[in-house]
Design goal:
Elements lengths: L25 H39 L8 H28 L2 E4 L4 E8 L2 E8 L7 E4 L8 E2 L3
Antiparallel strand pairs: 1-2, 2-3, 3-4, 4-5
Helix pairs in contact: 1-2
């Protein structure tokens, strides 16, 4: 997934494989899904809102750069502060998922990975907001585009 505008890039960072990693079976991932779904729903709602507001703010900032004294300078500064606060909230949601052992991959698309072991090697069980269950997996280096239906 490419970086989304206005969403902290650390949402997309790969996890540190040198640290102890919780792994999930398909059954465990699906059992965790009600809580994960609730967190991801909040994450996506806020992530999309932040991305849209950041884009509007950048557009206004580009337009107003030409003016020596901007009458909306304080309002723009307040918007910046609110975006920073909401970006911190996004990271709190990501941290909540991380504490569960789940990796957030997209704050606007609602994609998460559950580390898992298949045939003795690390893989990801992949889920996206709107899907009824964890039904896909991919190799660690394949990403979302490499998703395959779980058939085992």
């Amino acid at each position: 997934m490419g970086e989304e505008k206005g969403v902290p890039s650390s949402v997309h960072s790969a996890h540190d494989r040198s640290a102890a990693v919780r792994t999930f079976t398909v059954r465990e991932a699906n059992a965790a899904l009600p809580l994960v779904r609730a967190i991801v729903t909040d994450l996506v709602q806020l992530g999309r809102d932040v991305a849209q507001r950041r884009q509007r703010l950048l557009s206004v900032a580009r337009t107003n750069r030409r003016r020596a004294k901007d009458p909306y300078e304080e309002e723009l500064a307040q918007m910046e502060r609110e975006l920073e606060a909401d970006s911190r909230r996004i990271m709190e949601y990501v941290d909540e998922l991380r504490q569960l052992g789940v990796e957030a991959k997209s704050a606007t698309d609602g994609i998460v990975d559950f580390p898992s072991i298949r045939n003795g090697r690390m893989i990801y069980l992949c889920w996206q907001l709107g899907e009824p269950e964890v039904a896909y997996w991919h190799e660690c280096d394949a990403g979302y585009r490499g998703r395959q239906r779980i058939d085992w």
